[in-house]
Write a structure and sequence with these properties.
The protein is mainly alpha-helical and 271 residues long. Helices cover 44% and strands 6% of the residues. The chain contains eleven helices and five strands. Strand 2 and strand 3 form a beta hairpin. Helix 7 packs across helix 8 and helix 9 packs across helix 10. The longest helix is centred in the middle third of the chain and has 18 residues.
Length: 271
Amino acid sequence: MLKLRAARLRLLRDRPFLAAAVWRMPVVERPGLGTMGVSQAWHLYVDPAVVEAWSVEELEGALYHEVCHLLRDHPRRMRALFEKDQERTNAAADLEINDDLLREGMKLPDGTLQPEQFGLQPGLLAEEYFEQLPQTGRQGRGSPKAPQKHGSGAHGHWQPWEDGCADGPSVLEQEAIRRAVAEAAQRCGTAPGHWREWAEVVLQPPKVPWERELRGAVRRLYGLGADADEATYARPARRRLPNVVLPGKEHTAPHIAVVLDSSGSIRTAEW
C-alpha cells in the first residue's frame, strides 16, 4: 500500500487544508472490492489490486474524491434519494464532486463520470443532478448505466463490505472536522475557489429565529411568575387560625423591557 501512502502525501502537499479529514480516514483493505470507497463511519476501503493497477496520480484523485463525499455531507443529503434510485443517486453525488476536481486538473481513474457526458452543466449540486438525470432503466442520452460500488459515505446506506468497521467519529466530531477543514481552507491562500465558497457556508453562524426565541422566553417567564407567588402580610390569607395571622400570596408578574442599541456598531438598517 506504499502507492496509496504516496498518493495521500501528494494530496496533502498541494491541499494541506484537507489534513483534518484525510488523516481521520483509516484504511481498510478489501481484496476483491474492485474499487475505492468510503463509509459514513469515515473508513476508507481499498482493494489492493486496484492500488497496484492505478497510478499514484489516479489514487490521489480517487482519495480526493472520497474525502469530498464526507466533507460535503453526502451520507445525510443523499440518503432519501438513494431509496428512490440507487444508480442515479450515485451518479449525482459523483457529478457534484468530479466537475470541481477535473477543473482543478486532478487525474481521476478511467470511467469517471462528468456532467458533459449527460448533457448537463457543471457546478450543480448533487440534488440538482439527481433531478436532471433520467431515471435508471430509461433509454436515451444521459442514463446512468451499470451500477458502481459506492460506500455508505456517498449515500448513507451501509454496504455488506463495510461490516466490522462501524465505529467512527460521532455526528458532532464530523461537524468539527468539517469546520476545521473550512477554517484551514480560508487561511490557505492556494485553496480553490469552490472550497472557499464551501467554507463560507460551513462557517456561517446558525440563524436563530428571534421571534420564536422571544416568544418562548416570555412564556417561560410568565409561567415562572404564575407559580412563584410570594407570601405577603399586606394581604392576609383567607384561612384563619385562632390568634394566628397567616400571610396571603402575591402574584409576581414578569417585567419586560425593550432595549434599542443605537451605538455606532449598529447600522440604522438593523434597528
